[in-house]
Amino acid sequence: MHQGPRQRHPPAGRRADRHRHQRRRQARPQHERQRAQGPARAQPGGGQGVLHAGQAVRQLGMLLVAVALAAAAWWWFTTEMPRRERERQAAAEVATIQAERANALYRWRDDAGNLQVTEEPPKGRRYERINRNPQDGMAVDGAK
């Protein structure tokens, strides 16, 4: 009668514990074995705080990019934004003046005393601005 393959038994005593420990160590992935070794058995140049040349150059490059972005943001918010705000404000004032002129007529008298009504205000003369769109209703002013 055949009972199958013979099982190998580990030696008894201390050798058995050592044998079991070696099998466990072999079963762990390498990064876990390194972590288990701790800082006392760390390899030279492989500990924390030591950068390889490529990592140092990459970190320096990232630092330079961050500084450049910070400088660009500072310039944008101190120079460009106020300039654009001034341009918008000037454009709004011009648009307001043009809208008032488009909706207005100007009444004035020439050198001969004749009443003139024009779309452009006269230069160097007194004039009265009249709204092209009359207001609804009737206004009575007793002072005139």
TrEMBL record:
The chain crosses the membrane at residues 60-78. Residues 104-135 form the DUF4124 domain. Keywords: Membrane, Transmembrane, Transmembrane helix. Residues 1-50, 113-144 are annotated as: Disordered. Pfam families: DUF4124. Residues 120-131 have a biased composition (Basic and acidic residues). InterPro entries: DUF4124. Residues 1-28 have a biased composition (Basic residues). It comes from the Bacteria. This is DUF4124 domain-containing protein. It comes from Thermomonas fusca.
